[in-house]
Specification:
By secondary structure, the chain is mainly beta. The chain has one domain. Helix content is about 15%, strand content about 50%. The protein has a two-stranded antiparallel sheet. Strand 1 and strand 2 form a beta hairpin. The longest helix has 10 residues. The protein is elongated and about 50 Å long.
Length: about 70
């Protein structure tokens, strides 16, 4: 999940997860965590990416010692 969070941050996009009694959102506005009084019987994952972003990214998990030069 760390690679996904890093990409979401660089792309200025958003991810949301709803499962059980919790809600989690991560995006350019920071992190939000909430707990519901009831329970959601399943899981929803919503990923929102900026498709108009023409940037290329090298994420921390992709960097090796061979990539230095």
């Amino acid at each position: 999940m760390a690679i996904l969070k890093e990409f979401v941050e660089k792309n200025k996009s958003k991810m949301q997860i709803i499962s059980g009694d919790g809600f989690y959102e991560f995006g350019c506005n920071g992190e939000i965590e909430k707990t519901f009084t009831g329970s959601f019987p399943g899981t929803i994952v919503n990923l929102q990416f900026r498709t108009d972003d023409n940037s290329s990214y090298i994420l921390q998990g992709e960097i090796t010692s061979n990539d230095l030069f």
